[in-house]
Amino acid sequence: MVGKTAIVTGGSRGIGAAISKALSKCQIAVALTYKSQQSMAKKVVKEIHTLGGKAIALQMAVEDRSSIKKALAIIKEQFGFINVLVNNAAIAQEKAFNEITDENWDDVLSVNLRGPFTLCQELLPDMQKQGWGRIINISSIGGQWGGFNQVHYAASKAGLISLTRSLARIYSQDGITINSIAPGLVGSDMARRELESESGKAKVKSIPIGRISTPEEVANVAVFLSGDASSYITGQTINVNGGMYFS
After folding, report:
1. What does the alpha-carbon distance between residue 82 and residue 31 come to, in Å, rounded to a whole number?
2. Which of 153, 171, 232, 245 is catalytic?
3. Does 5-238 carry CATH code 3.40.50.300?
4. Threshold 0.90, pTM exceeds
5. Hey, where are the domains in the chain?
6. Any idea of the CA torsion for 149, 109, 8, 201, to the nearest 10 degrees?
7. One pLDDT digit (tens) per residue for the chain, 247 residues
8. 245 catalytic per annotation
């Protein structure tokens, strides 16, 4: 993977930050994006630079195609072709189904599903020209078994799994693999509120491995899927959930 370039959306914290750092250790130039957490994103970049890696942080709203185009142009100018796309940026919302508004639904789906769709659409032509590419979509166990107080979030993550499979059918013959990772409960900012609830605590007790995962454990899988060692794996959803869900 030496000399390649990756973009990691939502790379300022949690799983995105862990993936950014892990990829940089493989001598990949990393462009990590953030929407509002500029200081946190710059901190991740500084850590990567300290370890001798290449990285930049860019503001990007994944629900806005013009914002995506602007960020991609800067990345190409600095690093050249983008070889690896990690669609990690996402938002979640704890809300009863009958309280979800049209605006709530649109907000979650625009970030969690339309964002990855747009990025794939913008980057796949370049990957085809190179005859090589890796797309990793960060889905969720919620997209596999459904959501109780996060129906819109679960629906977006299920859609992301379907997007993964559909694109793999179309583009795998071009040397591009498209896979998704479905984490379970992860020690990240997004999961903190759920883990503090009674239902969240009950979920932790039901995990066969007996604990939640770290962001780094998800990042390890993303690194594997980003390289040549995973060249015959495409259209798959890799479960990183400690045994919470078997498929």
Report:
1. 9
2. 153
3. no
4. yes
5. 5-238
6. 0
7. 788 999 999 999 999 999 999 999 999 999 999 999 999 999 999 999 999 999 999 999 999 999 999 999 999 999 999 999 999 999 999 999 999 999 999 999 999 999 999 999 999 999 999 999 999 999 999 999 999 899 999 999 999 999 999 999 999 999 999 999 999 999 866 666 666 667 677 778 889 998 999 999 999 999 999 999 999 999 999 999 999 998 7
8. no
